[in-house]
Amino acid sequence: MNDGSRPKAISPKHVADAEWKCRTDLAAFYRIVAMLGWDEYIFTHISLRLPGPERHFLINPFGLLYEEVTASNLVRIDINGDVVGASDWPVNKAGFTIHSAIHEARDDAHCVIHTHTTAGMAIAQQPAGLLPTSFYSAMIVDRLSYHDFEGSVVSDGEKVRLVENLGTNNHLILRNHGLLACGADVAAAFSAILTLQRACEVQLAAQVGDEPLLTIGHDIRNAHRSALNKTVKDAPANDLSVIERAVFDAMVRKLDRLDPSYRQ
């Protein structure tokens, strides 16, 4: 393991353009999560599948804070969490287990993020889970999965159950544990975790009062999602990728103003 100095960098001239774009996007995602206060010291992960026939992925070097992640120090690994090539830093293989289960089962889940935010963990402890009571929860509550807590280490048997519970949804509450979201790319995964996180934050804030919360009915929730899908003029029906990329790119611009070192 590194002695505490910065990890050895991978030069962009030694990496294919497609991989470097993935590295830059994922490093930005890590920094955005840190900027929003969703990181958990050196723990939790965001993984991204690289293009190509190999089932290779990028993940954070274990031991670095999210704010220290850069495009060049992200580690390339295989589906088993083993390092591909050279790295000055190890990988938390146990932490990648949840991610590998989803990557292996879902060809559309190229990016997976798992968080331990206070709001997410608080809602994950509530028997009723996320309630259809806010703008944000109404967007996802009908397409939200749950997985019961089985301990901190994910066994092969639990991987099967986790994948079955997630199904085709992109949002998952790990009961007593935290949140998980996935998407076709970093923009989609960021949008998914942003919506889930905000829904949890709003519910937790609303529950401080003694009054019961207003529930949003199923028909209204459907109309709400349909309207949001038409937010961008001329975008394909039910295709949120334009919005997802716009939100992610806006956060990247903010990040660039504050600290563009993730691009190194």
From TrEMBL:
Protein name: Class II aldolase/adducin family protein
GO MF, one annotated term: actin filament binding
Source superkingdom: Bacteria
Coiled coil: none
InterPro entries hit by this protein: Aldolase-II_Adducin_sf (IPR051017), Aldolase_II/adducin_N (IPR001303), Aldolase_II/adducin_N_sf (IPR036409)
Similarity remark: Belongs to the aldolase class II family.
SMART domains recorded: Aldolase_II
Domain Class II aldolase/adducin N-terminal: 24-204
NCBIfam families associated with the record: PRK07044.1 (NF005451)
GO-annotated cellular components: cytoskeleton
